[in-house]
Specification:
This protein has 193 residues and is of the alpha/beta class. It folds into two domains: 121 residues, 3-Layer(aba) Sandwich (Rossmann fold); 60 residues, Winged helix-like DNA-binding domain superfamily/Winged helix DNA-binding domain (Arc Repressor Mutant, subunit A, Orthogonal Bundle), CATH 1.10.10. The protein has seven helices and nine strands, in the order E-H-E-H-E-H-E-H-E-H-E-E-E-E-H-H. Strand 7 and strand 8 form a beta hairpin. Helix 2 runs parallel beside helix 3. The longest helix is centred in the middle third of the chain and has 18 residues.
Length: 193
């Protein structure tokens, strides 16, 4: 999944980008609000999530969030040191999909990114209003849980369909075994190997 990281602190951005890349994200780093808005212009909804710091050098992150909301429905997660309730409420009311306070646990941030992605994928999985995903000759119909290739229906078990839908909804994301078990089987795995 392509992710836009809007963070003016290069050290924080480098560390977070490395973690995100290890988890399969294609990270684009913007150091200011203007850079973020420019990155969204040619790409539009090409980003799966925007991680937005509020303390930017050129404009307030709240203002950037409002501008992003006018351009795209891409999920926005505010990641900031502003921890007071008023700041969180204001950010969410402006259109942020989630709000994470620094310092944060990277595992929690990753879980929140995936949760926001799941919610938005269920709201509009194909990005165009219908409930189907097309991958080449394959058509995945989410509401009916049907898969067809070149018009021929393919019989899948419930878990096979869930796994295929998970991978199809997040192209380019590399999943760890634990993530797949958690998301498809809805349980955690503490085993080895």
């Amino acid at each position: 999944m392509r992710l836009l990281l809007v963070e003016d602190d290069n050290h924080v951005a480098a560390a977070l980008s490395a973690v995100l890349a290890r988890h399969g994200f294609d990270v684009t780093h913007a150091r200011s609000g203007e850079e973020a808005l420019q990155a969204l212009v040619p790409e539009g909804d090409g980003f799966g999530v925007v991680l937005l710091d509020l303390g930017l050098p050129d404009q307030d992150g709240y203002e950037v969030c409002s501008k992003i909301r006018k351009r795209t429905s891409t999920p926005v997660i505010m990641v900031t040191a502003r921890s007071d309730v008023r700041s969180r409420i204001h950010g969410l009311n402006l259109g942020a999909d989630d709000y994470v306070v620094k310092p944060y646990d990277t595992g929690e941030l990753l879980a929140r990114i995936h949760a926001v992605s799941r919610r938005t994928a269920h709201e509009d999985p194909a990005g165009g209003g219908d409930d189907a995903l097309r991958l080449g000759a394959m058509l995945i119909e989410l509401p009916t849980r049907q898969v067809s290739v070149d018009g021929s229906v393919v019989q899948l078990t419930r878990k096979e369909f869930d796994l295929l839908a998970l991978l199809a909804q997040r192209p380019g994301v590399v999943f760890r075994r634990e993530q797949i078990i958690s998301e498809v089987w809805r349980t955690s795995w503490e085993g080895t190997g």
